[in-house]
Amino acid sequence: MMVRYASGSTPLPHFGRRTMLRVMLAGAGVAATGGLAACGGGSGSGADSKVVTFGNNLSDQVPKDAITAALKAFEASSGGLSVTINTKQHEQYQEQINNYLQGKPDDVLAWFAGYRMRFFADQGLTGDLSDLWGKVGGNYSDALKQASTGTDGKQYFVPFTQYAWGMFYRKSLWQERGYEVPKTLDELVALSTRMKADGLIPIAFAQKQGWPGMGTFDQLNFRINGYQFHVDLLAGKEDWQDKRVKDVFDTWKRLLPFHQENALGREWQEAAQTLQQKKSGMYLLGAFVGQQFPDADKADLDFFPFPEINPAHGTDTVEAPIDGYLMAKKPANSEGALKLLEYLSSAEPQLAYLKADPTAVATNQKADQASYSPLQKKVADTIKNAKHITQFLDRDTDPGFASEAATNGLIAFIKDPNSVDSVLKGMADQAKNIFK
Taking the complete model, does pTM exceed 0.90, yes or no? Predict the structure, then answer.
């Protein structure tokens, strides 16, 4: 589920992932262009009890083939059920999710854990999966159950795959240059200074799609101010003009000279390629960075959690977004939908999917890790050992705030790092309007 957008697929220069968030905010009756039509889901009469419809956001060929293979395996073991797959281009799917859920969605549909799942569950647009969790809950950690739970205490989500954010690098380059993993911010600055002197871009960076810089903000905020302040800030319970937030941007300002220049004109895939080509020394991104590495180079990719900044918090928080599935509020085939979701919670389809995308890890804690690469094992251990898990800024806050205030604020800061005070005032003002 970690697929991002193919290079060049973003219709607007800064809002690839953000446009989806605007549509999530749209009220009933607001038309979404193109329309995300179901393949036959919804509560209509005469539904075929032998067919389960499946809303799929994995439009790139490799992951699309992988989830298709997993669903074929379900059909073979389901006792006569078949799955009709409704694939929509990844970004269009997200842009149109609001109207999709308010119409006649597919029985089972792809989405994300955390705030973005709760956003729709709170509106009564998705199906209650609490009884199913009574059966499959043992497959998951407490943190995954928490991320699948709505504000009413019921579960609405089945996790499928997960990945971690961190500082990614090529082992061979670091061995060649004698670089060592930095444990603190000062060590990171010293390493970056050395890389610059060695003719490398210390930290690859891209912000054309609007969202990658959110990951940098997240790391700095929870490293400096801790998990609780971070989630409270994103939930509108803290002030964006608080000195603690300014400290985050002042720290980022210290690191910006080591970031790849002209980030606003670069997509994440292009930045990842500079890491693969050994032009950059590090890249703060999700493990999906490995999707830009040819198979021959994948074993050379490694990562470390963002270094400690405040000893009070150490490295206790890991950003590890969870992708999985919802059920329609009134599926045409509720029995089949629950059967499919139960299957997707098991280790078999998760591991089958990972063969196509070996930068993610299974969410089923009983999944056999024998087939995992060293990188996958490290990702799994990092997630398992974290005291706190975050989802990513745009999954952990109000969609409208992420879409407008956060995206535009970060772009303004990157354009002019001396504009912190005005940027934070703008973000604070918008937060006050949104989090009433």
Answer: no
